[in-house]
Amino acid sequence: AQSVTQLDSHVSVSEGTPVLLRCNYSSSYSPSLFWYVQHPNKGLQLLLKYTSAATLVKGINGFEAEFKKSETSFHLTKPSAHMSDAAEYFCVVSAYSGAGSYQLTFGKGTKLSVIP
Amino acid sequence: EAQVTQNPRYLITVTGKKLTVTCSQNMNHEYMSWYRQDPGLGLRQIYYSMNVEVTDKGDVPEGYKVSRKEKRNFPLILESPSPNQTSLYFCASSFAQGYEQYFGPGTRLTVT
User: Fold this and answer.
1) Which residues are A18's β-sheet partners?
2) In sequence order, which residues have a C-beta less than 8 Å from that of residue A92 and are 6 or more positions away?
3) Which of A45, A88, A101, A111 is the most interior residue, by most CB within 10 Å?
4) In A, which residues are within 8 Å of B49 by CB distance?
5) Pairing assessment for the beta strands A23-26 and A3-6 based on DSSP bridges
6) What is the DSSP string of chain B?
């Protein structure tokens, strides 16, 4: 069994300040982890992914995330928030679930607000 | 341009009137999937397809049907829609199960 917990349902930051969106996971097998962003009235766009290579993963638009196995975390960060970063962010875990299948589990999402 | 397309983008219908939401991808992906997104519940998988002619239920399959006759297309069928199927629907595709998915723009369905 696996699960994903996004620790904050809503995060508010001022423009130009750092962004931290927290994600913890549990998985019986070595997972792949993803962050997606969803702007209003849009589909989900892949920000970055971890697939057992480098633990610090860089994505689009200046975002990065660090895979910490000991803490079972995959937090998303950005040094300086822009107004255009206001959106909902989803942490997703994918892992082998037996019988040749993979299970994909979405977090509930974190809504990021950026204050001018 | 690599993309997943869905049609229609918006649909208002009445209870019991059969409808189909189309999904098509141009990336030659093996795996395709349908999700619904509801406030407070996040994304939930309805059905998925590992390959042509291979489909399986996700977490919330009741009231939905799918088919995968061609690799690029994966339509979602609601034979007798009900108001509790009012939701935002997303189609997604990936190289294979477990890989990153590429999402369509969404279809907002309202059933009255």
Assistant:
1) none
2) A4, A33, A34, A35, A36, A104, A105, A106, A107
3) A88
4) none
5) antiparallel
6) ---EEEE-SEEEE-TT--EEEEEEESS--SEEEEEEEETTTEEEEEEEEEETTEEEE-S--TT-EE--SSSSB--EEESS--GGG-EEEEEEEESSTTS--EE---EEEEE-
Give the DSSP H/E element, type plus range, for residue A99: none
User: B102 to chain A: which residues are within 8 Å by CB?
Assistant: 46
Radius of gyration of chain A (CA): 14
On whether any CB of chain A is under 8 Å from the CB of B2, the answer is no
* Peptide bond between residue B8 and the one before it cis (omega within 30 degrees of 0): yes
CA distances from B99 to B64, B93, B111 (A): 25, 9, 33
Minimal Cβ distance to B90: which of A41, A43, A108:
A43
Dump pLDDT digits (tens) for B17-73: 999 999 999 999 999 999 999 988 889 999 999 999 899 999 899 999 999 999 999
Cβ A90–B43 below 8 Å, yes or no? yes
What mean pLDDT comes out for the span B95-106? 92
Instruction: Tell me the three state secondary structure of residue A16.
Output: coil
For residue A12, the model assigns a pLDDT of 98
**Cα distance between the two ends of chain B:** 36
